[in-house]
Specification:
5% helix; Immunoglobulin-like; single chain; 258 residues
Length: 258
């Protein structure tokens, strides 16, 4: 019995511990650069990843579906995807030849990911917008994803400290009163948040699905509009909830004024 008391104390302590925070998942579409100039390489490389970007950790991304929208025309890029590894996890890459001016919207439909800790699937869609050779029209066009962020701010040519405004839609309808999670791409892992609450920023959409966020420093920032999907996925014979996310990646250049 004398060994039982410490065990009971330990069990009670574990019960009282707060649950570990759920890490924010982001599907990522990241190009070499988001503005292609006359001096740039005309071969644009894209990486497709599934990560916790601010924590600089990766998850396996099973082969996704990738597509391009430019000049109102869609092209399936899935067959061009090549696998590579990041932190020992599966990711994908593809290249585009920039042959003419245009606004290039590249997106992906990531395979649903089973998150055991949350007892649900996570199914994210993602996209980014690249301006090539000073084209201006088309940056606000929807890609037609199940859940998507439609930019209301032009999503390139932004400085750190600029605000980004977007409209979240689910099945082409405004996603009202939902969370939009925000993280930056902490590529080298050098930046450390002072507390857990700083890792993932969050805003809510208004009744039209609109949200705004101001990026405090330069780099790639990801916005993920989240909701529960109407559809379920079966696992072990049971219907499981599916969180769908519409992710968008926007680059903010460092300020010219210090």
């Amino acid at each position: 019995m004398r060994h039982l008391a410490p065990t009971l104390v330990l069990l009670a302590f574990l019960v009282l511990l707060p649950p570990l925070p759920a890490l924010a998942h982001f599907a990522m579409v990241i190009p070499d650069e988001n503005i292609v100039t006359q001096e740039s390489s005309k071969t644009l490389n894209f990486q497709f990843m599934f990560r916790h970007p601010s924590e600089n950790t990766s998850l396996d991304l099973e082969k996704c579906k990738a597509e391009l929208l430019v000049d109102g025309k869609k092209t399936d890029l899935t067959g061009q995807l090549a696998e590579f590894q990041i932190q020992g996890k599966k990711a994908w890459k593809a290249s585009l030849e920039i042959k003419k001016p245009g606004v290039y919207i590249v997106g992906m439909d990531a395979a649903p990911y089973w998150e055991k800790a949350e007892d649900q699937y996570i199914h994210h869609f993602s996209k980014t917008v690249v301006n090539a050779l000073n084209a201006e029209d088309g940056w606000d066009k929807p890609l037609g994803q199940k859940i998507e962020i439609i930019p209301l701010t032009r999503p390139y040519g932004l400085y750190a400290g600029n605000s980004f405004t977007g409209r979240a839609v689910y099945k082409n309808k405004p996603l009202a009163g939902r969370n939009v999670e925000i993280q930056f791409m902490n590529a080298d892992g050098k930046l450390k948040a002072p507390a857990e609450a700083y890792v993932t920023q969050a805003v809510k959409t208004d009744h039209d699905g609109v949200f705004t966020y101001t990026a405090p420093w330069a780099g790639w920032w990801g916005f993920a509009a989240l909701t529960d999907d109407d559809d379920k996925i079966k696992r072990d014979g049971k219907d499981k909830k599916v969180e769908v996310g519409g992710d968008m990646w926007v680059y903010f250049h460092e300020s010219l004024v210090k």
